[in-house]
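SAMPLE LOG
Freezer: B-3
Tube label: C17
Construct: single chain, 717 aa
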Amino acid sequence: RQHEGPRRVKRAWVIPPISVSENHKRIPHLLVQIKSDKQQPGGVIYSIKGPGVDEEPLGIFSIDKFTGKVFLNAMLDREENDRFRLKAFALDLGGTTLEDPTDLEIIVVDQNDNRPLFRQDVFTGRVVEGAEPGTCVMTVDATDADDPDTDNAALRYSILEQGAASMFSINATTGEICTARPGLDRETVGVYNLTVQAADMSGDGLTTTATAVIYLEDINDNPPEFTKEEFSMEVEEQAAGVDVGKVFVHDKDLAGSPNWLAKFTILEGDPEGAFVIRTDPYTNDGVLSVAKPLDHEVRDRFELTVSVQNEQPLEPGAPASPRALATVRVRVRDVNEAPIFRENPRRISVLEGVPPGTPVTTYTASDPDTRQLQTLTYALLYDPAGWLQLDPHAGTVRTKRELLHPSAFLQGGWYIALVLARDDAEPPLSATGTLSIEILEVNDHAPLLQPLTGVVCGRPGRGGSLLLGATDDDRPPHGAPFHFQLSPQHPQLTRNWSITRFNVTHAVLAVLVELPEGPYSLPLLLRDSGTPPREQQQLLNLSVCHCGRDGTCEDVLAGLGAARVRGRRRALRKGLLQCSRDDMRDNILNYDEQGGGEEDQDAYDINQLRHPEFFPPRAKPPVRRDAPLSSATPLAPRKLPSSPSDIEDFINEGLEAADSDPSVPPYDTALIYDYEGSGSIASPLSSIVSSLTDEDQDYDYLSEWGPRFRRLADLYG
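STRUCTURE (predicted):
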C-alpha cells in the first residue's frame, strides 16, 4: 500500500485576521470573501456563527451564503468589544460539510474617541506653612478608556491655574503636586485652589480638568501681642472670686489652635497672690480676678506687670513680640465692712456657783473700716439659760445668776452663748462671736452611801460581807474614787468589822469575828477625791443573821428582837433614860418582820418627845406591816405626853400595847435606834459597842428558850 501523508488544508480556506476601525460609518461594509476549493456542480452554501452573528450582540456581521462575502452591519466600539471570533462553514446543497469549520477573527482598531477622566472632581491636600520647596502635597490621577497600548491613552498632567505666586508644580507623568518655592504663609494665604489638566495623545489629544485644593496647616510662627501697653480696672474690697476686668491680645495664628491660645502670667506687683489671671477660651483675652479678699485700708491700689505667650512654644526663627508685656492698674474701692471678732470662739473658764455680777470676760470686736468713724455696740444674741448680762458699749460679760451643775444647758460642762457686734454705718453690718464658757466643777457635795441598810451573816467568811457603794453629785474629778472607812470616832469598831476597797465606787464590809444576830448601826466615813476632798459620816443599818451551813441567813431575828425589847423595858423601868451618865439620846424606830431585815422608817426624833408642841397629832395608829390582815387594831391612839416628865410613861404605854397584841410574836414599836447625823452625841445603842457597855440588862432568861438560843444566852446571859 502506498503510504498516505498528513492531510493538508487548502490555502483558500485559511482566513487571516481581519481589522476594521471602530466607529466605521459606511454600513454595510464588506470585510472579506471566503471561498472553498471544493466546488460542486450545484454550488457551495456558506455560513458564519459566533458573537455578533447568532450570539450577543446579534446582527453585527452577516455573510452572503452563495458568494461567501462577509459584511459589517453596525458601528463598532472598541471599548465594548475589541475583537470578535467567528466560525465559517462550507456545505453542499444537501447540507453535507465540504470543509472543516475555519476561524474568522475580526479585530476592532482603536480610535481616540475617549477623553481622559479624573478619578474625582476635587482633590484635597495639606501642607504646613513654611514648607521647603519640593515638599510633595498630593497626587492627582486620571484614566482613559482608549487602548492603553496606543497614544490614545497616553496622558500628561499640567497646572492650568494657581494664582500669580506659582507656589506649586505638578509632575506631568505621575500627577504629583509639590511645593515649587519657599514662602508659604498661612496668615497670608491659607488655601490654594489649583486647576489641573490631563491630556491624552501625550498631551496633544483630548483633555479634561479637575480642582486641587491645598490647605496650609498652621505653625506657631506668630506670638500673641497685647492690644495696648496699659489697662486700668477697679474692684471693691472684700470681694473674693470676682472678675476685675480683661486684658486684650491678638494672635495671627489659627484661632482655637494651641498656636493661638494665650497664657498669661503676673510677673510683678502681687507678692501676696491676691490676683489670678486666666484665659478666655473663646476670645483668647486674659481675665483678671481676685483670689484673696482685698482690704482698702491696707492697700488701695495695685500695679501689675502681666506677660503673655502661647501654650505651644514658638517655632525657631519666629519673630519676638514687641508687646509681650502690659501694665495693669487696679484700684481698690472702699466699702463698709462688718466687725470682726479676732478670737472666735472665745474660750474661758468660770467656777460654778460664782455669785451674780461676777465678771466673766470682755468680748469685743474690731472694725476693719479704720478710715471711717464708726461705733460698735454689743448684744447677747443667744443666752439659753439667761445666765449672762452684757454691757452694750464695753462688751463686758458678767454673771446674771449662779452657774451650777448639773444643767440641761451645759454640753460636756460648757455653756455656749453668742454675742452680736454691730456698727452704725448705713446700712449697718454685724458679726457674731461665740462665747464658750467652761463651768468648772467645785467639790460641793460629799459622797452618799448606797444602800443605807443591809443583811450579813454573823460569821466571818462566806455570807459575812456586804458590798457598799456611793454616789456623788459632783462631776469628775471631784467624785470617784471614793474612800470608805469605819468612823475614826469609834475605833473599837475595827475589832469586829473591816472595810476593803472593791473598785473606785464600791467597797466590801466584812465581819471579822462571829457576831450575835440582831440589828447593828455602823457609823461610816465616806470621802471623795475632789480638791479639796469632801467627806461625810453616815450610818449603815445592818441586820446580822444566823448563818446556815451554806452561808445564808436563818430566821432568828425575832428572838433577838424580843430579847432586846425585854432587856430595854427593864432598863426603862429602872429609869435609865433619866439617869444615864452619858445622856444617851437616839431615835425610836419601827422594827420589821423577821427574815426581812430592819428598815429605818417612821423614826421618831427624841427631841419631839421633849417638845410635844412640834409633834403632829395622829388621826389613827400606824398600820403594823408585820401583823396579819385580821389582826386587831387598837381602838384609839395613845395620848401624847403633856410634858417632858411624862416621856417614861409614854414609852411604857407603848411597850404594854405591843405586849397585849395577841396577833403577832412579841414585837415592839421601839426597837431600832437610828443615827441622828454627823456630830451627834448619841452612841449607837445596837452596835457591838453598846453590848459592851450595857451592864444593867439581864438576858438570863434566854437559856429558857431552847437550844436555838443557846448561843445568844452564852453571849448575853
